[in-house]
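Training component of the fellowship. As part of building independent skills, the fellow (R.M.) carried out the full modelling exercise for a liganded target. The chosen ligand was uridine-5'-diphosphate. The inputs are recorded below so that the supervisory panel can assess the work.
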Amino acid sequence: MRILITGGAGFIGSHLGRLFIEKGAEVFVVDNLVTGNKKNIGDLLKNDGFHFFEKDIVSYDYKDLPSFDIVYDLASPASPKVFDRLSLEIIRVNSLGLIKLLDFFVKSKSKTFVFASTSEVYGDPKVNPQPEEYFGNVNPFGPRACYDEGKRFAEAIIFSYRQKFRLDLRIARIFNTYGPNMDPEDGRVISNFITQALKNKPMTIYGDGRQTRSCCFVSDMVNGLYLLGTKGNLEKPIINIGNPDERSVLEIAGLIKTITKSRSKIVFLQIGKDDPKVRCPRITRAEKILGWSPTVDFETGLGLTADYFKNI
Ligand code: NAD
Ligand code: UDP
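Fellow's submitted model of the complex:
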């Protein structure tokens, strides 16, 4: 099996590449390292079946690449912390970059395509938990729009290519994911809280901390992505992948403080505009179609992630 992973030097992509290498596949990664890191794939680079191309998918011509059984498109900055600094890069990679990749997919006669979409397509949802049928509640003209609308436009592009060329294109709506290989500086809730807790520095809660998130450990996430890419014909091409264990941000801070035995204080800072108040996946479709559900409970996953952060 030959697999292409764009964004394969990032957090989730590096785990996905490792999983496919363990299963005996040949893995090609295209990544411009804008938010990824070669350290995430240091061990994989030594493997004969792993090929790394440091390229931007917005400008890459793909001329050195063969045809693939599965193409995973994970290339995109993903943390709200960079939405301001990398807004244009996010817009480009999720539109121009995706179109270039789909054109390569068609031309190379590759078989299955999986796009990494996000729970952010549901925006600040008025329905909780969020089923795949929900259209979302997104502000198209705000600080999160480059990402939220970028991913929504990407889904629209995929819909049109699917209709036009009858291709096997699939969409994973990924919910908050955490675990080893997260960038400690990426500003996301779990990485921030663990980094702060390990240094006994104040843990920064934005707003009153009553907003909720449902966090999925990365090994569960890549198992879900693996199944989504390898499953035979899919009736419904869009699938939520995430862990429905919904917690408030305040609760997440408390858990991390306990697990790391930290003396950190909890401080409350101003919350960003359009920060979703609730988020939780409905995963009945993943359960039924993929036979997938998460297996790592939150406390165990946080412990494993804290161990990783201690060692880097
Ligand atoms: P990440 O930033 O660690 O990984 C993204 C990778 O894409 C990085 O290695 C980056 O260098 C690369 N990249 C970005 N723009 C590129 C370009 N133009 N050309 C080539 N490579 C490029 O983020 P992640 O958390 O691993 O996210 C991976 C994917 O999953 C993203 O598409 C993200 O939107 C999606 N996602 C992630 C989460 C999450 O909680 N981590 C949630 C929902 C969706
Ligand atoms: N958050 C927080 N403190 C932090 C980082 C994040 O309170 O140091 C909150 C943030 O406001 C949001 C939630 O945690 O409500 C998740 O934020 P993250 O950036 O991880 O991802 P999001 O789900 O918003 O894309």
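The panel noted the following from the submitted structure. The chain has eight helices and 13 strands. The mean pLDDT is 98.
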